[in-house]
Design brief:
By secondary structure, this protein is mostly helical. It has helices at residues 2-8, 12-25, 36-46, 50-66, 74-88, 95-102, 106-120. α5 packs antiparallel against α6.
């Protein structure tokens, strides 16, 4: 996406937002990486309970059904769902630890977490 944004002389963020709108408005299905593919490895790397891993998968599937993760980085949304599951299961795993294993930032995990919480209405 960065190359397309650079060639189009627009920001990557605007390109991603436009892509998401296009996919939603045209009711397209995109075949890219599925965030649930990353959960097992990520959960294992941060050493969470099986229930937490299954809850994270549930949250991701719910988000997919709602169509709210189209055009988002699958690893980032997976790490955010895992953090949400950790919070709800009272596991003391920090955003930083999850972010480190997901090779992203704690800000990205936090923003994704807040996005999911707002969309789920909890």
């Amino acid at each position: 996406m960065f190359d397309v944004a650079k060639a189009s002389n627009i920001s990557k963020k605007l390109l991603q937002k436009s892509y998401r709108r296009l996919v939603e408005n045209l009711e397209l299905k995109s075949s890219t990486f599925i965030p649930t593919d990353f959960i097992t490895r990520l959960a294992s790397d941060v050493n969470v309970q099986e229930k937490t891993r299954l809850d994270a998968i549930y949250f991701l599937k719910k988000a997919q059904r709602m169509g709210i993760i189209v055009g988002r980085n699958p690893m980032c949304i997976a790490s955010s769902a895992l953090y949400l599951a950790c919070v709800l299961n009272n596991e003391n795993i920090s955003q930083g630890k999850i972010a480190k294993e997901a090779r992203t930032t704690s800000v990205t995990v936090r923003n994704g977490y807040q996005y999911l919480v707002n969309k789920f209405g909890s």
